[in-house]
Each structure stands twice: as structure tokens, then as C-alpha cells.
Amino acid sequence: MIKVIAKNLFKQGSIENALSLYEELVEKSRAEKGCLSYELFQDIENPCILTMLETWESKEYLKAHSESEHFKRIVPQLGKMREQHEINVYAKIL
């Protein structure tokens, strides 16, 4: 099992646009084979921080996700609205 934590700090005034893009990304990603969960969270103290928590059956499914049409189209658009981002990918060991 693979867990992805993608934390993003968005520019002021870009959250509404980002959330609109995330709606499609979440919907289509959840329908992908191998996706166990795909959830977006917003920081309670700073609404400009959005964090995606993903769980995939394997690295192969995660790789296929990163090569999907919706990922390749939406993620670069989100990147233009970000100030910072951090992505960590974990393999379950226990």
C-alpha cells in the first residue's frame, strides 16, 4: 500500500479556482483502478493550505495515476497558483 501526502500553500485569492480544479481531480482520481482513497483537506488556521491524502494499492497504480489525462492537465494548472508545495510518498511497512 502506498500513501501520498501532498501539501500545498496557494497564493492569496486563488483558493476558489484551486478548489474548482480539485473537484474534477478528486472525482476522476477516485474512479481510477487501484485508488483506495483520495481526499482533500483544508487547514483550519490557514485556508490557503490544502493537503491531498491519497492511498493507492501499489506504486504501479500511483504511476498510472500520474500519467492520466486529468492529472497531466490539472496539476500544472494548480502549480501556477501555488507558492509552496511538498509531496511525500510512503510505503506501508507495518
Taking all Cα atoms into account, the compactness measure Rg is 13 Å
Low confidence ranges: none
What's the total helix number?
Answer: 3
Order of helices and strands: EHEEHHE
**CATH level-two architecture:** 2-Layer Sandwich
Which overall shape is indicated by the principal axes computed on the Cα atoms?
Answer: globular
Distance between the termini: 10 Å
User: What is the highest CATH level, the class?
Assistant: Alpha Beta
Largest sheet: 4 strands, antiparallel
Helices and strands, with pairings:
Layout: E1 2-10, H1 15-30, E2 35-42, E3 49-56, H2 59-66, H3 69-79, E4 82-91
Antiparallel strand pairs: 1-3, 1-4, 2-3
Helix pairs in contact: 1-3
Considering the chains and any ligands shown, give keywords for the structure.
Alpha-Beta Plaits, four-stranded antiparallel beta sheet, 94 residues
Describe the structure.
By secondary structure, the chain is α+β, with helices and mostly antiparallel strands. It has one domain: Alpha-Beta Plaits. Helix content is 37%, strand content 37%. Helix 1 (15-30) runs antiparallel to helix 3 (69-79). The chain is globular and about 35 Å long. Residues 2-90 form the ABM domain. GO terms for molecular function: monooxygenase activity. This is Antibiotic biosynthesis monooxygenase. Keywords: Monooxygenase, Oxidoreductase.
